[in-house]
Amino acid sequence: MYVYDLVAIVLIGVSHVLLYIQLIRYNRLSYKMVFSLSIIFTILLGIVVTVTGYPEFNVIMLLIFLLSLGLMKDDLTFMQNVFFALVSMVLITLVKLVTMELGMKLFMLSPYNLYLWTGSIIQLIVSIIIFTSILLFRKSIQRFAQFIIESPLYYISYVLLVIGLIMMLIISMPSSALLSTLNQQYGQVSSNASFILFLLLLLIVLIGSHLTKERMLEEQQKRSDKELLDYVRKLELMHDELASFRHDYINVLLALDEGVRTKNINQIEQIYYDVIAPTSTLINNRELEIVKLSRIAIPEVKSMLSAKVIAAKQQQVKVMIDIPEEIKEIAMPIISFIRVISILVDNAIEEAVDSKEKVLQLAFFEMEKEQYFIVKNSCQHENIDLQKMYEKRYSSKEENEGYGLFSLKRMIDKIETATLETAFKSPYFSQTLILKKRS
Amino acid sequence: MSIFILEDDVMQAQQMKRLVKEICEKYEIAYDFIEVTSRSKNIIEKIHLTTYIPIYFLDIEINNEERKGLEVAQEIRKYDPDGIIVFVTTHSEFAPISYQYMVSALTFIDKGLPYEKRYHAFEQCLLHYEERNNLDIPTDDFIMENSHSTVRVPFTEVEYIMTDRPHRLALVTRDRLIHFYGTLKEIEVLDDRLFRCHQSYIVNKTQMASYNVSEKVLVLKSGKQIPVSRRLVRKVRQLIKDEL
User: Fold this and answer.
1) Overall pTM surpassing 0.90 (yes/no)
2) What is the mean pLDDT of chain A?
3) B121 and B31 co-located in one domain
4) Could you please report the per-residue DSSP string of B64-78?
5) Distance from the B212 Cα atom to the nearest Cα atom in chain A, whole angstroms
6) Is B149 inside any structural domain?
7) Torsion of CA B208, B214, B215, B220, to 10 degrees
8) Given the DSSP bridges, would you call strands B201-204 and B158-165 parallel, antiparallel or unpaired?
9) What angle do CA B49, B54, B58 make, to 5 degrees?
10) Taking Cα atoms as reference points, which of A416, A232, A250 lies closest to residue A333?
C-alpha cells in the first residue's frame, strides 16, 4: 500500500460526499466541514473493511452515510435522496473504473517501463481529476440535478443506476458467499457491462446538460418577456389616460373660452369647480410614479422593480418612488443586488397589503461615497423584535417558512461594503441598504 | 439670524413671508432679514452675510423644473453645511426620503395643507431654528468609519454593539438595527462611554440600568439584556453604581 493509494482513496471518498452535497444542493456545510467529515468517514470505512474482510461494506456503508446526509435537507423526498446517493456512488465508481482501465492501456502502449507503483499513480491522477472536475463544475452539477428529477430521463437513469449498483457489488471482489459466486460467474461480463453502462450514463449526462441549458434560457426569456409586457401594458394604460385627459382639457378650454368672451363669471366659476378642480386628483395620481423608474439605467433592476411596483398597485398599495438622479451602476454584483432588493421589496409589499395605511415608499439615490436603497412600508404590527427577524425560522406569518430575511442577511454578510439598517417607528418599517462605492 | 424663502409664485411667496413674520412676532424670534426671492442666485450670494445658522424654505418645483429645489439645496450645502433646509412643496403626502439624506433636509411642508396645519408646520420649523441658534448644541454622534462602511448614529441612541459573524457587527438602538462590516476592536477605542463587557459585546455605559444576578446578564434601560464576562461582573456593577 503506497501513500499514493491512501491519498487517492481519501480523495475519492471526499469526491463522493462533495458530489452528493452538490446534487442535493445542500450548501449549509462549509468546505472545511465536508472535507473533514468525509476524510474521517473514509478512514473509518477503511478500518471496517480491513477488520471484517468484507469489501461489500464499502458500497453499503457509503450508501447509508450519503442517505443520512440527505436527511439534513428538508425538501428532499426519500426517492430523490436514494437517487442522488446512487448517482454519486455509481457515477464516480464507473468513471474511476473506466478511466483507470483506459489509463493502464495507454500506459502499456507508451514506451515507459511498468512498475509496481504505476497503478497507484494512475489511480491518484484519476482521483485528482475527478475531484477537481467536481469542484470546478459544481454550479452546473447543481443545475443539472434540479433539471433531471423533473425530466423523463429521471426514471431511465434510475434503472441504470440500480443496475450499476448491483454490478459494483459484484465487481468489488466480494467475500460473502452469494456475491463471490456471482463474481466468479459474471465478473468479466459485469466489467464489460459496466463499460457500456458508463457510456450510457455519459450519454444521459450530455443530453441532460444540454437540455438544462436550453430550459434555463427559455425560463429566463419568459421571465423577461413577462416583465417587459407588464411594463408596456402600464405605459399603454398611461398613454390612454393622457389622451383622454387631453381630450377633456380641450373641451374645458372651449367652455372657458365661451365664459371669458361673454364675461360670465358665474359660468367660469362653475366650470372651475365642476371640471378643472377635479383634474388635480388626476395629475396627482400616483400612476405616474412608475415613470420615475426610468432613471435607473440598469435594465434588469428597472424591469424587476417595475414588475413589483405594478404588483403592489394591483393590491391597492400606494407606491411612492423617489429616485432624484440617474443611477448608472450598482456598487455590488448585479445578481445579488437584484436578489437582495427583491426580498426587501417583496416583504415590504406583503406587509403593506395587510396594513391600514397601505403605503410603500422606494428610494434609490447616490451620495458622494455611498449608494442608498431604501424601502419603507406601513405595517400592522405594533412591536417588532428587529433582531429576531433575521433568525432562520422567524416569520411574521405562520404559514410562511421565513427564509427571506435570513437568506438576505447571508447575502449581505458576504459583501463587505454593504451595510443594512433596519428601523421601525410604528406604523412604518424601513430597511436601508447602504453600499460604499469603490474609491 | 436670517430667513430665506425661495418661491417663484409671487402670491405664495408673499403669503409665506406673512406667515413667517407672524410666527416670529408671536415667539419673539429675532432675525436680521427675510429674503424672499424666486432666483436661487440671490440666496447663494447672501449666504456669507448671515451671522448665525440660517433657515431656508425652498420650493421644490421652481419654474416648472421638478428637481430645481434639490439642486439649489445642494448648492447651498456647499457654502453652508449647518443651515436648516425645509422644502415646501405641493402634494408631499410623503416626503422624498432621498432629500433628507442628500442635503439633510429638516422636513417637508405641504402647500396644500389647510391653513392651521400649515401654520403649525412653519411654527415647528421656526422653533427648531430658534433652539438651534440659542443653545448651539454640539452634535454628539457615534461615528464609525472604515474602508467598507460608515455608520453614524446619535450617541444617546446607541445601546450596544455586538459581533454578529466574523467581521460583521450589529449596532442596536431602541428602534434600529444596523448590520455592518467592522470589528469590536476598532469600536472600543472610539469613545470612553463605550465599555467592552463581553468578548462579543460593547455596551454604551449610559444605557445600563441594572445587573441581573440570577440570569447573569446586564439589563439596559430599554429592558434589553446582554451577557457579561464573568471576570467583568464586578466592574459592570461598579459602573452601574457610578452611573446612578
Assistant:
1) no
2) 82
3) yes
4) TBTTHHHHHHHHHHH
5) 21
6) no
7) -10
8) antiparallel
9) 110
10) A416
Q: Which domain holds residue B119?
A: 2-135
Alpha-carbon dihedral angle through residues A388, A393, A395, A400, given to the nearest 10 degrees: 180
Question: Does B104 touch chain A if contact means CB atoms closer than 8 Å?
Answer: no
B111-148 confidence digits (pLDDT tens): 877 888 888 988 988 888 888 777 766 678 899 998 89
Tens digits of per-residue pLDDT, A143-170? 888 888 888 888 888 888 888 888 877 7
Helix, strand, coil percentages, rounded to 5, for chain A: 70, 10, 20
Interatomic CA distance for residues A180 and B67, integer angstroms: 85
Contact between A421 and B178 using a beta-carbon 8 Å cutoff: yes
How does DSSP assign B82-141, residue by residue?
S-EEEEEESS-SS--HHHHHHS---EEEETTS-HHHHHHHHHHHHHHHHHHHHH-PPP-E
Closest Cα in chain A to B70 = A324
Work out the number of other CB atoms within 10 angstroms of the CB of residue B158: 25
Length of chain B as a residue count = 244
Half-sphere exposure for B17 (CA within 13 Å, toward CB):
18
Residue type, B42: N
Domain count across chain B: 2
Is there a contact between B175 and B164 (Cβ–Cβ < 8 Å)? no
Most A CBs within 10 A among B150, B171, B177, hence the mutation to make, goes to B177
B95 is a domain residue: yes
Domain assignment present for B150? no
Could you say which DSSP state residue A325 is in? S
Greatest mean pLDDT among A182-186, A368-372, B7-11: A368-372
Q: Say how many CB pairs under 8 Å bridge A and B.
A: 83
